[in-house]
Amino acid sequence: MATKTSARSTARAGKAPGYRCAECGWTTAKWVGRCGECQAWGTVEEVGAVVARTTAAATVLEPARPIADVDATHASFLPTGASELDRVLGGGLVPGAVILLAGEPGVGKSTLLLDVAAKVAGARETGAAGARDVLYVTGEESAAQVKLRAERIGAVAPRLFLAAETDLAQALGHVEKLEPQLLIVDSVQTLSSPEVDGSAGGVSQVREVAASLIAAAKRRNMTTLLVGHVTKDGSIAGPRLLEHLVDVVCQFEGERHSRLRLLRAVKNRYGPTDEVGCFDLTEAGILSVTDPSGLFVSRTREPVSGTCITVTMEGRRPLLAEVQSLLAESAAGQPRRATSGLDSSRVAMLLAVLQQRAGCLLHKDDSYVATVGGVKLSEPATDLAVALAVASAKSRIALPERLIAFGEVGLAGEVRPVPGINRRIQEAHRLGFTHAVVPASPTGPGEVPEGFKVREVAHVAEALELLIPGS
C-alpha cells in the first residue's frame, strides 16, 4: 500500500499543474500573479501539465553554409502595385515573409488586402514581372460576399482564388493543392485546429494557427499576409508571441469620419520601421495617396486670424497640417479648454506659457484648438504653430500668407530645435510656401531653397513680436 502511494506521489511530482501567460506564452509550474517574462499582471492561467523533456540531436540534412555563399536573390522584393504599401514594407513583398496587418473593425484591412491580391494576381498593371497565383482564405465572410466586394472595387482576377474556411487543416489543404505564391488569411483569429483545446481566437489556437502558417510559408517560400484583430485598447489580440513570430507587423489606422488611412510598420525585418503609408478609402476601393499634405490644409480666399500651418514628421515623411484656434470670452468662472486632434494637456501647457512668458492674457477666454482634416498631431514640433495660432486668434491679426512654423516650446518659453528642420523646409517650399519660422539651431536650417526666407527664433515671445507687432 505504501509502495502504491509513493508511486502516485512520484507521478504527481513529475506532472505538476502547468500555468502559461496569455500574453507571451511563458510557462511555470505554479501560479503567480505576475508573468516572469513580460511582467504583465493577471495573465497567468492554468493550461495542464508541464513535463520536462529533452530532445536528442538529429542527423543534419543540410549542412550550415558560410553567409557569403547564401543566395539572397530568392528574398528580393516583389512590388505589389500599391506604392504606399511598398513604401512601408521597404520595397514590396519578400518571398517567404509573414506579414501581420492589424487594425480596428471597419478601417479597411480586408479592402486593402483584396486590392493587393488582385494586383498581384494580375488584375491591373502592377509593374511586377508577371501575375502570380494568390489564395485568399476568409473566415469572416463567405466567398460570395468577398466576390461582391471585389466587383465593387474592381479586384476580380483570374489567378485570384477564394476559400471560405475556418478549419486550419482545410486551409493548409488548399495551400497544398494550389501552391500559391501569395497567401492571405482574413483573419488569423477565425481559424482553429481541432487538435488544440480552446475556441477560435484563444491563446492556444492563435499560437497553433500562426505556427502552422509560418512553417508553411517558410517551407514553400510563400509570402503570407495575416489579418489580426485588435482589442479595445488598440493592441493586437492574442498572445504577444504572435508579433515575435512574424516578420512584419503593420498597424492600419484611420478615423471613421475621415477617408484617410495611415499604415505604419511597427516591426519590419526587411526595411525601416519609421515609414508611413497614406491611403484614401472610397466607395470604389482604396487608393494610394502619394501627396497627402493638401488634405490637412484648408482653402480660404483671404488669410484668417487664428490659423497657422506647420510641418509634422510622420515617420520619414513630412506632412503639412493646419492648426486653427478660436477664442471667445468666457461666461463662466472657469474658462473652457477644448481640443481636437491635439493633446489637450499639451495645449493647456502652451496656453499657460503664452500667458506667463509672452504676456498673452488668456485666463478669461474659452479656447478651442483643432486640426484640419481630422489629422492627429502628437509631435512636439507643432507647439510653435499652436502658440502662433492662439496668439493670432487673441489679437485677431492673421499671420502672413505662405508661412509655416514649427518648433518645440518649453515651459520657460524657449523654442527648442526639432529633428528634420531642412527636410520640413524643403517640403514647404515644394508646396509653394515662401516663409518659415523655425527654432534657432547651432547647425542652422541647412541649405535653404532660393527665394525661401527662414527666421530663427529662440523664444516664443520673439516669434510673437516678429509676426504680430505689439502682442
Automatic annotation (TrEMBL):
Q: Which InterPro entries has this protein been placed in?
A: AAA+_ATPase, DNA_repair_RadA, P-loop_NTPase, RecA_ATP-bd, Ribosomal_Su5_D2-typ_SF, Ribsml_uS5_D2-typ_fold_subgr, Rubredoxin_2
Q: Which residues form the RecA family profile domain?
A: 74-230
> Does the keyword rRNA-binding feature in the UniProt annotation?
no
Q: Tell me where on the tree of life, at the top rank, the source sits.
A: Bacteria
Positions contributing to ATP binding: 103-110
Provide the residue span(s) of the region labelled Lon-protease-like.
366-471
- Which residue numbers does the motif RadA KNRFG motif cover? 267-271
Record key words, sorted:
ATP-binding, DNA damage, DNA repair, DNA-binding, Hydrolase, Metal-binding, Nucleotide-binding, Stress response, Zinc, Zinc-finger
The answer to keyword DNA damage applying to this record is yes
Q: SMART domains from the entry?
A: AAA (SM00382)
Record NCBIfam families: sms
State the similarity comment. Belongs to the RecA family. RadA subfamily.
Q: Domain comment text?
A: The middle region has homology to RecA with ATPase motifs including the RadA KNRFG motif, while the C-terminus is homologous to Lon protease.
What does this chain do? Plays a role in repairing double-strand DNA breaks, probably involving stabilizing or processing branched DNA or blocked replication forks.
Q: What is this protein called?
A: DNA repair protein RadA
User: Can you name the source organism?
Assistant: Sinomonas halotolerans
